[in-house]
Design brief:
Blueprint: H1 10-22, E1 32-41, E2 45-52, E3 57-62, H2 67-75, E4 82-85, H3 89-98, E5 103-106, H4 108-123, H5 137-150, H6 157-182, H7 187-194, H8 198-204, H9 227-235, H10 241-250, H11 257-270, H12 282-285, H13 306-313, H14 322-334, H15 336-354, H16 360-368, H17 373-384, H18 386-394, H19 400-415, H20 422-429
Parallel strand pairs: 1-4, 4-5
Antiparallel strand pairs: 1-2, 2-3
Length: 440
């Protein structure tokens, strides 16, 4: 402040900013809000931002991300009529508890992205045509231990088929790279011919045999993080999901109840070996080879990865470049699965463009009976959140403004060089009222 010629201390400026940000109240109560999370530290600690979608301004910033804090904030604003949020179950429950009178709107961008991920997983059944970096030797032993720990529970046939396809794809990539290396080709030339990264190829050539992949470290979002405690409770006879969910929540579990239920379901099936568990879609996953074998790019000759295939699958024909259109045509000709998935994705986009939610139920029913496991799972999840999805189709509101405010928040936070505490960050994000400004 001294360099600016202001006879006031830095602490006084900060105190005034914090005092202004702590004042809650608008000229008129908010009606339509968007709620989203943002990371203080990625994959470690998160906060919540609440945006007034009508006035296009930040209403509040919460230090944490929990059902209780968001629900309490919503209860203090009973005028709210519409809550736009992503598909996070945390905000679904918070809006249900804190603003039962409000209509919830699922974000359209996240709905399309969830469909893209389902398509990617479906196309991955034929193997991944991507060069994933292999593990160093010191990681192989820990991976075996971790794999033995997590593969004790039985898995569905389509999940096992997906794992085998990925493993076979990596093996083929490994053998191809070593064969080209024995012909005397350099890493750069191998990268040019295969389409994989040069650094990855150099790393692959340091191994003589294909190593196992390392699983990610367990986090408190996974019920397996508390596996020892859950196993002991299971042996003691405590097998009710809600009771176990409450117990591990008190021990730091931050995941959802559905994740815990999936783990407990595998334990229940393991205790009934006499039952014959049939795959939900036998025409695709039992004893047959899927028709979505990897397809090569007609222009470069490289295999088209499931990631690229999924991205092209949800993209309309008018938005495709010439090379992308060639890839789509090649995928449709050589993969019946891709052709079916593209038909469903175009129908899904058409429902949003037509603003007619009445067609959604027919789409969900067709997807569930399509014989494609991951598409059917996506459709079943849509049905559980059907009201919010229909509102996303019929109403003009989305979380786009909230995402834009998060970008602004990240810019401010990084420019504060680690000094972006909750009070200061909130003070800089909240709008300053002209009535609070005064001059001498």
């Amino acid at each position: 402040m001294r360099r600016l010629g202001m006879s006031i201390s830095d602490d006084t400026i900060l105190r005034h900013l914090k005092r202004n940000a702590s004042r809650v109240g608008d000229e008129a109560p908010a009606r339509i809000v968007g709620i989203d999370d943002w990371s203080w530290r990625k994959s470690w600690r998160y906060g919540t931002i609440i945006v007034d979608l009508e006035r296009r301004k930040v209403m509040d910033i919460l230090e944490g991300r929990s059902v209780v804090s968001v629900a309490q904030w919503l209860k203090r604003h009973p005028s709210i009529e519409i809550v736009s949020r992503d598909r996070c179950g945390l905000y679904v429950q918070a809006a249900r508890e804190g603003a039962p009178q409000a209509s919830q709107v699922a974000d359209r961008f996240h709905l399309i992205q969830n469909l893209r991920l389902a398509i990617e997983e479906q196309m991955s059944l034929s193997g991944r045509a991507t060069g994933r970096a292999l593990l160093p030797d010191e990681d192989i032993e820990t991976d075996h231990d971790d794999r033995a720990l997590h593969e004790q529970a039985p898995e569905t046939p389509w999940r096992n088929q997906l794992r085998r396809a990925h493993r076979q794809s990596r093996k083929e990539v490994f053998e191809t790279v070593h064969a080209l290396s024995k012909e005397g080709l350099t890493c750069s030339e191998i990268a040019r011919r295969t389409g994989y990264g040069r650094r990855s190829i150099a790393k692959w050539l340091t191994f003589e045999t294909l190593p196992d992949r390392r699983r990610g470290a367990l986090q408190p979002t996974s019920p397996l993080y508390f596996e020892a405690f859950l196993t002991q409770c299971w042996k003691d006879g405590n097998r009710r999901g809600r009771h176990l969910f409450h117990d591990i929540k008190n021990r730091g579990y931050t995941g959802s109840f559905s994740n815990l239920e999936r783990l407990l379901a595998t334990w229940r099936r393991a205790e009934k070996p006499g039952e014959d568990h049939v795959a939900p879609f036998p025409s695709v996953f039992v004893g047959e080879t899927p028709d979505n074998a990897p397809v090569r790019d007609p222009h470069t000759g490289h295999l088209i990865s499931p990631v690229v295939a999924a991205t092209l699958c949800i993209k309309p024909r008018g938005a495709l470049t010439i090379n992308q259109a060639r890839k789509v045509d090649a995928l449709k000709q050589r993969s019946q699965t891709f052709a079916v998935l593209r038909s469903f994705s175009m129908r899904f986009r058409g429902i949003f463009h037509s603003r007619t939610s009445a067609k959604l139920e027919d789409w969900i029913e067709d997807a569930i009976h399509s014989g494609l496991a991951f598409l059917a799972r996506f459709a079943r999840v849509l049905r559980r959140d059907i009201d919010a999805v229909c509102n996303a189709i019929d109403l003009p509101w989305s979380n786009g403004q909230a995402e834009g405010q998060i970008n602004r928040l990240k810019t401010i936070k990084r420019a504060m060089y680690g000094r972006a505490g909750p009070e200061r960050l909130r003070a800089r994000m909240m709008p300053i009222k002209s009535a609070d400004l005064h001059t001498k």
